[in-house]
Design a protein that fits this description.
Blueprint lengths: L1 E2 L2 E2 L2 H4 L1 H4 L2 H8 L5 H8 L9 H13 L25 H6 L2 H5 L18 H24 L4 E2 L2 E2 L1 H5 L1 H21 L3 H22 L13 H29 L4 H28 L2 H4 L5 H4 L5 H9 L3 H6 L7 H11 L2 H19 L7 H15 L3
Antiparallel strand pairs: 1-2, 3-4
Helix pairs in contact: 3-8, 5-8, 5-12, 5-20, 8-10, 8-12, 10-11, 11-12, 12-13, 13-19, 16-18, 16-19, 19-20
Bound molecules: farnesyl diphosphate and magnesium ion (2 copies).
Amino acid sequence: AGKGNITIDPLRMVAKEMKFLTGNIRQLLGSGHPSLDKAAKYYTQAEGKHVRPMIVLLMSRATALAPKHPCYNGLADSVNIDKPISPSVILSDVNPSSLSTNPLTNSQSTYSEEDSDILPSQRRLAEITELIHTASLLHDDVIDHSTSRRGSPSANIEFGNKMAVLAGDFLLGRASVALARLRDPEVTELLATVIANLVEGEFMQLKNTASDEKHPVWTEEAISYYLQKTYLKSASLISKSCRAAALLGSSDSITVEAAYSYGKNLGLAFQLVDDMLDYTISGAELGKPAGADLELGLATAPLLFAWKSNGELGSLVGRKFSGEGDVARARALVLQSDGLDQTRALAQEYVSRAIAAISHFPDSEAKDGLVEMAIETLKRRK
Ligand code: FPP
Ligand code: MG
Ligand code: MG
């Protein structure tokens, strides 16, 4: 992708910081218990897309140049985020050697040496964001009975449901410790709210009001319920971590709101595209099962738009596509309709709003990177 003849590569702009991301995350996840250690680090092995930490780092850099909060004293980042996390007392009692092998006992996170306009606390925020996301994937794959993730067997298949859930909980625990170390109550509150929002979004998805009826009829409410759910399950993490990045950089309130608005609109677009890809891309290319949403009884945007023009879908929604041939029928009706086009158009609208939200930021490479991230959201195939 390019602007004129200058190529914009968002990853290149934060490559130095991204290089240490996975190593630092794995360090945060060390446990003296070998099988917990293995399960907790499992999803850090395959290279994920790391979209969320990249956005946090780009937002940190882009807002570094924006106006500061009036109380800013130039000492934005004096906290020590690297105090070692003590290993579990009970485990080290059982097996004292785990103390010396626990990578957290002499924890020193690695960040690039060179001076950077991205603060250590903002880099740690990027890691926390990825940790929370990964925890939600561990739980999600249990809930969705998924069999693959990032091209490998999912954690629930590799370790079983119980260990996958506990590994997810462990990630949230370590993310919370890292968050507490930032010593910023507003940022702590934001990310704690994200965790609650993820659960609320997942609950809204499980208990869909429309499909609680046998023969639901289409109303605008179906779309607004879907969008509210989508905010909670996907956009909350991106938007609130963008907001937190700006807060850690002592940005003024206009910049903080702009960062939030960028993340919210990008997060909504991101999930709309995700729900489209579930219809249009093969499982082999996605690295996870395709067509999974209908199998799970889920009516996402493409189907909701198709339903608006074809009432037949109502009864299928009503029984969550559980009848013989329902999934194939619903899929065919969606593909015949303009549901996918309407979903793409809505995603495009959110991408435009994301870009507009940061248009007043001072010009910078990082700002161009954020714009490019938004544009690429529409083009992605996995
Ligand atoms: C992926 O969606 C899942 C999420 C974005 C959030 C899932 C949230 C929970 C399971 C609640 C528990 C949360 C925490 C913080 C532990 P998807 O199933 O549509 O995507 P997929 O195709 O990648 O599986
Ligand atoms: Mg899933
Ligand atoms: Mg799911």
